[in-house]
Amino acid sequence: MTLATTVGRLHLATDSTTGAAESHGFLSPTGVEIAFLLVGLVTLGAAVFTVTTRQLVHAALWLVVALGGLAVEYLLLTAEFIAWVQVLIYVGAVVVLILFGLMLTRAPIGRSPDADSGNRWAAVTVAVAAAAALVWVVVDAFRTTWIDLDGPAAGSTAVTGASLFQNWVLPFEALSVLLLAALVGAIVLSRKAKADRAAGTGGTAATGRVAGTGRAAGTGGTAATGGTTETDPPADPNGADKGGVR
Amino acid sequence: MHLAYPAVLSVLLFCTGLYGVLARRNAILVLMSVELMLNAVNLNLVAFDVWLSKAAEETLHSGQALTLFTIAIAAAEIGIGLAIVLAVHRNRGTSDIDKLRDTAEGHEPDGPDTDAPAAAGTAAEKAEATA
Amino acid sequence: MTTTTLAVLVPLLPLVGAAAGLLLGRTAPGFVRPLAVLPTLAALVLAVVVAARQGGGRAVDAVTELTPTGSVPIELALHIDGFAALVAVLVGTVATCVQIYSTGYLRDDPRYPSYAALVSLFTSAMFLVVYSGDLMVLLVGWEIMGICSYFLVGHYWETPEARAASLKAFLVTKLGDVPFLIGLLALATEAGSFRITKILGAVANGSLDHPTLIALLLLAGVAGKSAQFPLHTWLPDAMAGPTPVSALIHAATMVAAGVYFVARLLPLFQASHAAMVVLAVMAAVTMVGSALAALAQDDIKRVLAYSTIGQLGYMTGALAAGDRGAAVFHLISHGAFKALLFLAAGVLIHAAGTNSLAAMSRMRGLRDRVPDAYWTMTVALLALAAIPPFSGFFSKESVLVAAEHVVTGHTEHAPGAAGWTVLVAGLITALLTAAYATRLWLLAFRGRGAEAPDHGRQPVVMNAVLWALAIPSLALGGLAFRLLPDWFDGQDLTPTLTTSVLGTGVALVGGIVTYAAWRHTTALADRTPLGAVAAHPEGDAALVEAEAIASHKPAYGDIAYAPDPSDPGRLLLGPLHRHAAVGFHLDAVYTTLFVRPVQAGASLVRFLDREVVDAYVRGAGTLPRWLGTAVRRAQTGNVQTYVSALLAGTVVLTVAAVLVATGA
Fold first, then answer.
1. What is the C-alpha to C-alpha distance for residues C349 and C353, in angstroms, rounded to an integer?
2. Phi, psi of C359 (to 5 degrees)
3. How many CB atoms lie within 10 A of CB C268?
4. Cα–Cα 20 to 30 A to C97, which of A93, A195, C192, C235?
5. Do B103 and C644 touch (CB under 8 A)?
6. Which helix (H) or strand (E) holds C76?
7. Is C64 helix (H, G, I), strand (E, B) or coil?
């Protein structure tokens, strides 16, 4: 619903800008468009492999490809800072974390026949229906809208930093509270596990990764929250090591 | 560049993630699919931000700022999510979503519970896991 | 104090005693006996004082209206004429005697406090009925008596007989009370008041539109309360209660209330010839039928119960003859000797350990065990049989004289047919009464066989009460028949020669024939051993009686009947005996006519409810249950299924919203 309403609202807003893009059509793609399309196809294919492959570790690796492809797309959209953050956090942190998760839950290496649940056909139906509806709406709304990529980059580090620390300081600080809460939450979950004595290291590893990702986000944001997160590094390799040993 | 390209790609990625969330059995794969959906949203945000910053002289860069926030939140989410999945796995010996059916009407006691080392913590963990 | 104040105190004192007895019964057991006896005794004294002050002169009337009560005012009214004053004295006397007797009779009964309080409450209600000058207030007392009777008959509620009897007594009297209430309301509507004086004034003016209808409706209530045919069946069964209760309620007072009510409103009934004829026929059937039934009963108390019904028949007969003086005269003398009979029977049952006459006739020397009961009962039986000079003779003669007056046309108050009916039935009943009185006496006191069991001396209070009641049984009639007309309507109550000779003659014939039959059959007694005596001879009288009642049916096969070939009643009645013993199958008829149809209707309703109404209810429940099963099946616990359904719905809604927004 939210998407639909947003699109509807944008639909109204774009009426004024469609006139400028009328000279560009789908049948005369620019070089950027071709590049975007190709990378997009790779990304989408990787994503599809991610959700369909029967080998769990392969899924994680395909996810790397998809996330990396997305980073390239960000670059093509001139949002370079976002692109590097994407590479740092997603490809660097999240995927590694997921791999550890897979190992800690003793995910089978190789093809597992039951990677998909019995809900598969319902899922296909819903996903295809949603895709059809959304594609229809989006294409109907924005088929003539043109992004002018010329001129100064819209997402350079300077621009993003200025906007982030001029207009978005308060949400940014609030976000650090959220990360703290996530940190505490992960610790609480792990402490219970520690009381269980057996799998305490798994919990520690998770906590360590959370702290690490928090730090990564913080450092990504020009080290404004670096003061709070600088203390974390000892936990990071420690937890990762333990998780790896196990 | 036409806005339709990133928008459609975003839609397709989102629906792929949607399929993954609905169809995958392993909880970690579900989390990965959630990441896909989040990235689709990010792509959307970035594309529209770039378009609006040029076309509508919008200087707040709210799209990119929100993308950064989303990335941070996604990182926290995957951390917490994995912690939960691990806790469930410890207690239940499985991280298969369709075996966690405590809320089913007239459900039988869950499958193998042998991995649970201490019975005392099981109930609390189970409550947390299903919460 | 004025007469009015004293009269108000008369019903109030036993009421206060009852309340105090109920409240203190558990906490202060020592006060229960004084609280039972003293208020009743004080009420008796006050009633005597009221009677002395009233003295048969002008009626005392006092009225206060507490609050307006709609179209027909309900007033707290006293109306004390000679009838009320004397009946109140009788009620007080019998109630006091019964309370004193009960202290001995229910010596060890754990429920004595509530019993005594209920008897006090009953006494209070009866006083209210007697003194009240307002029919609605009278009805209050009338209904309180009904409920007290229910509780007291069910005193031995451990036995199924007592439970059934109390229910039966309540239901049958209520059956009469419903038309009674309707009749009262109709009467008050037509007369414009519940006050007896005003109603009688309206009757004198002839301003009642439907006297016959009202009189018949009221008669239904009277028949229920006074145990007249066809609503008399509860009274013999009510003998399952303790003997003092039978003496007080079912002989001397409550059953007399119906007769007393008719006596108060006699002009109303006289306004309708049909009602008088109905009254006469009712009285005649009741008299003869109950006397025949009494001759066949084996339980001594049931004999007395049927005898009560018969004597009440005499009273209604006198009323049908238009002579309420005779009716109330017989009511008073009968109250005295019937109370005595019951109380003596209580002593007898205690001494013999059985209530069966057949068993008593196989005991030697029972009269030597209880000499007081023997002598007083002899007196009372002679009074019952109307042998001069006992009091029953004079009162019964006054009834017969009243009927004779009607027959000979000396009075125009009543139709001649009623007179004839009452006179003939009265004479037949006199014969039968003497017969069953003789039979009772012979079987109880002239038994032969094993020595009667020795249950020790009877309590002094019980014997003292017997002698106290023997005096009026012996002498009241002879002393009072000259004085009473001053208190009553002034009609002469003196026996005439014709009726005296006739009545005494038939009574003697009945007695002698019974004696002859007894001599003939008594030889058979030795050959058929019979008898079952109570298991706890050392217990108090109430316990013995309860056991006797409970064991009668298993021992003899029926509550009212014993297969005793030495019974003179069997010889006298011949083939009729079998029917008389069960009250001429009236209960069976009622069962067929009313109980079975009601039960059939109940089972029909039950069937309709279970199978028809419930079918719809169950059907209505089935669909939601199916839906619930279907919905429950959807609750698989699989989160992915839930999310799939959720998102599918979202997609559908989104598409619908977009279609609507774009106007497609």
1. 5
2. -70, -40
3. 22
4. C235
5. no
6. strand C76-80
7. strand
Total Cβ atoms within 10 A of residue C575: 7
Architecture per CATH, domain A1-154, reads as Up-down Bundle (1.20)
Cis peptide before C211 (omega within 30 of 0): no
Which residues of B, range 56-85, sit inside 8 Å of A by Cβ? 56, 59-62, 64-65, 67-69, 71-80, 82-85
Partner C contacted by B29 (CB < 8 A): no
C539 to each of B30, C109, C536, C567, how far by Cα in Å?
89, 10, 5, 30
Write out the CATH class of domain B4-95: mainly alpha
pTM assigned to the model? 0.65
- Judged against a pLDDT cut of 80, whether residue C314 lies above it is answered with yes
Q: What is the DSSP code string of C234-301?
A: HHHHGGGS-HHHHHIIIIISHHHHHHHHHHHTHHHHHT-HHHHHHHHHHHHHHHHHHHHHHHH--BHH
* A4·C647 Cβ contact <8 A: no
| pLDDT per residue as tens digits for the range A46-98 | 999 999 888 888 899 999 999 999 999 999 988 889 999 999 988 888 888 88
Rounded CA-CA distance C532/C355 in Å is 9
Chains adjacent to A (≥3 CB pairs closer than 8 angstroms): B, C
- Chain C residue numbers with beta carbons less than 8 Å from the beta carbon of A3 are 654
Alpha helices in C557-613 (DSSP H): 568-573, 576-581, 586-590, 596-607
Distance CA A207, CA C78 (A): 98
Residue C101 in tokens: 């007797």
With a cut of 70, say whether residue C329 has pLDDT above it. Answer: yes
Instruction: Give the pLDDT mean for C309-320.
Output: 88
CB-based contact C249:C121 (threshold 8 Å): no
Taking CB atoms and an 8 Å limit, are C647 and A130 in contact across chains?
A: yes
Chain CA centroid to CA C110, Å: 25
Determine, for residues C651 and A133 on separate chains, whether the beta-carbon distance falls below 8 Å.
yes
Listed residue (C640, C561, C637, C29) closest to C302, CA to CA: C561
Interface of C with A in 622-661 (CB under 8 A): 638, 640-641, 644, 647-648, 650-651, 653-655, 657-658, 661
The neighbour count for residue B49, using CB atoms within 10 Å, is 26
**Do residues C251 and C101 make contact, with C-beta atoms less than 8 angstroms apart?**
no
| pLDDT (tens digit per residue) in C429-487 | 888 888 888 888 888 888 777 777 776 677 788 888 888 888 888 877 777 777 777 77
Residue ranges per structural domain of chain B:
4-95
Structure confidence at residue B9 (pLDDT): 93
Alpha helix (H) residue ranges in C106-242: 112-131, 135-153, 160-191, 196-205, 211-225, 234-237
* Residue B31 tokens, joined: 């989390």
Domain boundaries, chain A: 1-154, 168-246
What's the CA gap between C496 and C502, in Å, rounded?
10
